[in-house]
Amino acid sequence: MRVLIIDGQGGRMGQQLIRSIRERFPQIEVTAVGTNSMATAAMLKGGAQQAATGENAALVACRQADAILGPLGIVVADALLGEITPAMAVSVGQSRAKKILLPINRCNSVVAGVGDYSMNALLSAALAELERLLK
Question: Of 64, 120, 125, 127, which residue is 20 to 30 A from 19 by alpha carbon distance?
Answer without folding.
Answer: 64
